[in-house]
Known about the structure:
The protein has helices at 3-15, 20-32, 37-40, 43-57, 64-71.
Amino acid sequence: MDIQTSKLELVKMIVNIDNQKIIDKILSVLKSGQEDFWLELSDLEREEIEIGIKQLDAGQRIPLDDFLKKVS
């Protein structure tokens, strides 16, 4: 089944739903797939990513093999 056929099938199924709880769950699932992962990160995780980006921008890089040795 191609994606367009799947979408049409999904629309048909949704149109026939009479249970508000099911509709709410579907909406929740669809909205969660559109959220920005950045918002799900902790403040510490965001800070560490920003530090890493600044280091890369400043040319502070190490070879992948060295990094893997360091973290393993």
